[in-house]
Amino acid sequence: MMKTIIEPFRIKSVEPIYFTTAEERIKNLENAHYNMFRLHAKDILIDLLTDSGTSAMSSQQWAGIMQGDESYAGSPSFFLFENTIKKITGLPYIIPTHQGRGAEKIIFTVLGGEGKIFLSNTLFDTTRANIEFSGATGIDLLCKEGTQPTIPAPFKGNIDLQALEKTILEKGAENIPLVILTITNNSGGGQPVSMENIKATQQICQHYKIPMFIDACRFAENAYFIKLREKGYAEKSIPEIVREMFSYADGCTMSAKKDAFANIGGFLAIKDDALAMQCRNLLIITEGFTTYGGLAGRDLEAIAIGLEEVMDENYLQYRIQSTSYLTNKLADAGIPVILPSGGHAVYIDAKQFLPHIPVSQFPGQALACAIYKTGGIRSVEIGSLMFGKYDEQQQPIPANMELVRLAIPRRVYTQSHIDYVAEVLLEVNERKNEIQGLKIMEEAPLLRHFTAKLQPVVA
Ligand code: F0G
Questions:
Q1: What number does CATH give the domain 59-309?
Q2: CA distances from 344 to 244, 254, 398 (A)
Q3: For residues 193 and 141, is the Cβ–Cβ distance under 8 A?
Q4: Ligand 1 atom at shortest distance from the alpha carbon of 49
Q5: Most buried residue among 59, 161, 172, 459 by CB atoms closer than 10 A?
Q6: Spans of all domains in the chain
Q7: pTM of the model
Q8: Cis amide bond preceding 340, omega within 30
Q9: For ligand 1, which residues put their CB under 6 angstroms from it?
Q10: Atom 21 (ligand 1): residue with closest C-alpha?
């Protein structure tokens, strides 16, 4: 057996990447107000900002794009999309949306509102924002292992079952419209949730008559981790594992920009017909008619094909291996990363990496800037810039963790690109004492990380 896990594809179409000088990058950072979202993509060599919408589509998907039927109502592309998702999830009502947050906006508008509480292992930022925008509250109940970045455990995305039950009793089941399991847990390091945990969550929910939804963006990666790490699943196929995962759910939201290899798209899948009806009514006034939901027929086609492709084990093996290769390379060099490696990204613990920068000066953001400056690589902070809040006295409340995420687009970069990323990180590591903290100069009240302007704190 060969040891090297090779990319399970060859390249048919290429696009250039953009080289810059160190001086240009310093200037670019200044112009972007030290915010990665304000950088121009043309000034970036390797873009690890996100694995969302950045996948390379297959020749089959491109062929599907040509076959997409653009009928306003009843397009065959919709029925392919619907049947594929029904088959994969076992859920009966399939509602297309323009992306994941489109699905979130609909479900939380229907179920949210003042006084309502949503419980989760960890809500992604757009999910939390949609909940809060409806007037409701979101509570994260991540298992203890999940909050310990460098202590390895197989399923660090699990929800804390004891805390779940305790919170339901405290807040009252009648105030909790949904429990949401984010699979894999993006904000907590791309860590998987075990089948046992999904099942136990469903049992608790059923007992208190609360529906359980899955945020299914990275469902196939999660299923592969279950196959690798959970007893009793080694011999099961990925579609079987996926089907079991969804069998415990009353519905899901999905961003097809992740594990469907699509550049845009998403959906809601729902078990309850009355809830599906309410969602469809809202869909029509916000996203579009029920058989396209904000997407072109060609997108529906590409998503349907991508959802099948992502469950290929050769692909998943390469995917998970490639992420852990980078994680382990950084760990071996003494860079504190979340261990074990997650599915779609490498997460650096910036608090530990840059102990000279206080949390109030955004060590994660400072590190993201240093990585760009050193090697033209774009990453993203998942820490206090993204999740920090203010208390009533306007004092900052930091996030639980200060992470920098290097998200790996699917089927886009080769092994040598990944080796280059490791080299840049090693160089940053050698000169980390020179990295300065940042302060916010301007910010929006919601999702501030997208638009905030920052400046280095001058010592
Ligand atoms: N849920 C999770 C777990 C996500 O990671 C994302 C997006 C969404 C929901 C929203 O989906 O972008 O299609 O509206 N995550 C991207 C990221 C943006 O970079 O992690 P969307």
A1: 3.40.640.10
A2: 22, 16, 25
A3: no
A4: 19
A5: 161
A6: 22-51+312-456, 59-309
A7: 0.95
A8: yes
A9: 50, 52, 99-101, 124, 126-127, 182, 186, 215, 217, 255, 257, 266
A10: 100
